[in-house]
C-alpha cells in the first residue's frame, strides 16, 4: 500500500523533446535556483571538491553539486551541521546540493558492512564500535545537511551478482525502505526525496521496481545499482526499460555515470541527471577530457606543446590571457603535473568545465531538435574511423532511431 503522496520542492519545466530519440531538455527549479537539464553533477566529497573552490565550481557553471552524507555525517557531524545550519552555509555554496543516502559509501568503503531489514550494520571507522544506518537515520542526517535533493537509503548490490534471489530481495527491500524514508522525512516542502530503482540487470525486476517506486510519487526518480562493471549493452537496456515506464514530468537521475560517451547515450535513452567521481579523479592522474578523447598530459609528447589543454575550450585554464583566462599550455601542465597539486588543480577545472559544457551543448541540440546530428558529430570527433565506434553505443542508439554508421 502506497502512502499519501508527498509535497514536492521542485518543478520540472520541460523545454524540448528530441523528435527521434528519447532525449529531453528541461529546467529543474530547485530551492536554491534553477538547474539546466541534462546535467552532470560534480562530486564534492567532504564538502569541498578536491582541487576546486566553491567560486571556481560556480564559475564553471555548476548549479547542483553532490555531497556525500557519509563523509558529512562523520565530519563535521550531525550536531555541528545543525548548529551551522546545514551544508550550504558550511561551504558557503549558494546553489543546490544533492546528497546520497550514505549507504553505498558504507558498503563500498567498509568491508564489514552487513545489510539487514533494519538497515546497514557496520563498524565505526573511528573506534570500531558497531553502528547501524537505518533509512530513518539516513534521512535525519540529510535533513540536517539541508540538501535540495536527498536520496533514499537503498539495498544496493553489484549488478553482476548472479544471485537472483538476493537481487529480488534487495529490490523489494529498497521499496520498503523508501516507505520508511518517506515517513521519516521532516522537510518535504524544502527538500526533494528521490527514490532509487533497483533490480540489477533483470529487466522484469526493474519493471516491477519502477512501478512500485512510481506509485510512491517522489519528486524525482533515480536509477541505481549501475556502473558496477556490467556490460554497457546491459546498462543501456536497464536505462531504456526504466525511462520507458517513468512519468514525463519528473527528473531522472542515473547514478554513477560520467564517461562522455555514456552521458550522451544515456541522454538519448531519456535520462537527465548524472554524477561520477571519475572526471575529477582522473585529473589527478594527469588526464584531460576532450572531444578527441582522454589525453594524458604526463606523456612526454606534450613537453613542448604550447597549445591549450583543448583547442577552443572556454574554461578558465584554456582561454588566453587576452580572453580573461589563464592561458595554460599543455607544456605547463606537463611540467607541473609531476609535482602534484598545481597541474591536478588546473586539469580538474578543465574536466569539470568539459562535463558541464558537454551537457550544455547536448541541451541546446535537444532544444533545437538536432540531437541525432549532435550524436553523429560527437562520435565522429571521438573516433577517427566508424569501425572503432563502440558496438554497445551503436546498438543502443539504433534502438532509439539513430544509426551512427549510416552517412
Ligand atoms: Zn579547458
UniProtKB/TrEMBL annotation:
Region (RNA binding): 256-262, 280-284
Keyword Glycosyltransferase appears in the UniProt entry: yes
Coiled-coil parts of chain: none
Natural source organism: Trematosphaeria pertusa
Organism superkingdom: Eukaryota
Cellular component GO terms held in the UniProt record: cytosol
Active site: 100 (proton acceptor), 275 (nucleophile)
Subunit structure: Heterodimer of a catalytic subunit and an accessory subunit.
The reaction(s) this protein catalyses: guanosine(34) in tRNA + queuine = queuosine(34) in tRNA + guanine
Domain tRNA-guanine(15) transglycosylase-like: 21-382
Cofactor: Zn(2+)
Stated name of the protein: Queuine tRNA-ribosyltransferase catalytic subunit 1
Gene3D superfamilies according to UniProt: Queuine tRNA-ribosyltransferase-like (3.20.20.105)
HAMAP family: Q_tRNA_Tgt
Record-level Gene Ontology MF annotations: metal ion binding; tRNA-guanosine(34) queuine transglycosylase activity
Binding annotation for Zn(2+): 313, 315, 318, 350
GO biological process: tRNA modification
Subcellular location(s) per record: Cytoplasm
EC number: 2.4.2.64
Amino acid at each position: 500500500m502506497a502512502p499519501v503522496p508527498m509535497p514536492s520542492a521542485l518543478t520540472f519545466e520541460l523545454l524540448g523533446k528530441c523528435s527521434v530519440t528519447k532525449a529531453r531538455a528541461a529546467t529543474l527549479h530547485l530551492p536554491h535556483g534553477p538547474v539546466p537539464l541534462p546535467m552532470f553533477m560534480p562530486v564534492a566529497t567532504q564538502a569541498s571538491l578536491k582541487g576546486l573552490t566553491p567560486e571556481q565550481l560556480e564559475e564553471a557553471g555548476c548549479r547542483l553539486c553532490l555531497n556525500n552524507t557519509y563523509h558529512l555525517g562523520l565530519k563535521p557531524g550531525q550536531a555541528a551541521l545543525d548548529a551551522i545550519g546545514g551544508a550550504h552555509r558550511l561551504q558557503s555554496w549558494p546553489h543546490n546540493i544533492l546528497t546520497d543516502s550514505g549507504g553505498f559509501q558504507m558498503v563500498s568503503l567498509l568491508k564489514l558492512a552487513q545489510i539487514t531489514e533494519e538497515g546497514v550494520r557496520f563498524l565505526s571507522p573511528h573506534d570500531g564500535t558497531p553502528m547501524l544506518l537505518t533509512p530513518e537515520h539516513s534521512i535525519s542526517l540529510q535533513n540536517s545537511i539541508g540538501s535540495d535533493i536527498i536520496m533514499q537509503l537503498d539495498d544496493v548490490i553489484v549488478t553482476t551478482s548472479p544471485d537472483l534471489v538476493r537481487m529480488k530481495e534487495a529490490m523489494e527491500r529498497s521499496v520498503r525502505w523508501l516507505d520508511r524514508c518517506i515517513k521519516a522525512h521532516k522537510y518535504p516542502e524544502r527538500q526533494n526525496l528521490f527514490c532509487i530503482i533497483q533490480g540489477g540487470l533483470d529487466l522484469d525486476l526493474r519493471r516491477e521496481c519502477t512501478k512500485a517506486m512510481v506509485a510512491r510519487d517522489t519528486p524525482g526518480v533515480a536509477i541505481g545499482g549501475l556502473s558496477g562493471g556490467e556490460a554497457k549493452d546491459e546498462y543501456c537496456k536497464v536505462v531504456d526499460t526504466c525511462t520507458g515506464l517513468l512519468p514525463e514530468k519528473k527528473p531522472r537521475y542515473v547514478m554513477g555515470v560520467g564517461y562522455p560517451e555514456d552521458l550522451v547515450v544515456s541522454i538519448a535513452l531519456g535520462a537527465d541527471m548524472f554524477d561520477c567521481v571519475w572526471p575529477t579523479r582522473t585529473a589527478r592522474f594527469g588526464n584531460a577530457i576532450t572531444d578527441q578523447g582522454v589525453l594524458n598530459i604526463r606523456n612526454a609528447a606534450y613537453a613542448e606543446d604550447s597549445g591549450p589543454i583543448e583547442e577552443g575550450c572556454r574554461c578558465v585554464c584554456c582561454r588566453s590571457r587576452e580572453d580573461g583566462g589563464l592561458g595554460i599550455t599543455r607544456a605547463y601542465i606537463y611540467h607541473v603535473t609531476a609535482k602534484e597539486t598545481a597541474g591536478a588543480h588546473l586539469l580538474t577545472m578543465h574536466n569539470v568545465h568539459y562535463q558541464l559544457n558537454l551537457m550544455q551543448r547536448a541541451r541546446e541540440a535537444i532544444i533545437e531538435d538536432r540531437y541525432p546530428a549532435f550524436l553523429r558529430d560527437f562520435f565522429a570527433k571521438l573516433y577517427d574511423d566508424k569501425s572503432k565506434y563502440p558496438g554497445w553505443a551503436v546498438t543502443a542508439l539504433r534502438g532509439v532511431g539513430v544509426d551512427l554508421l549510416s552517412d
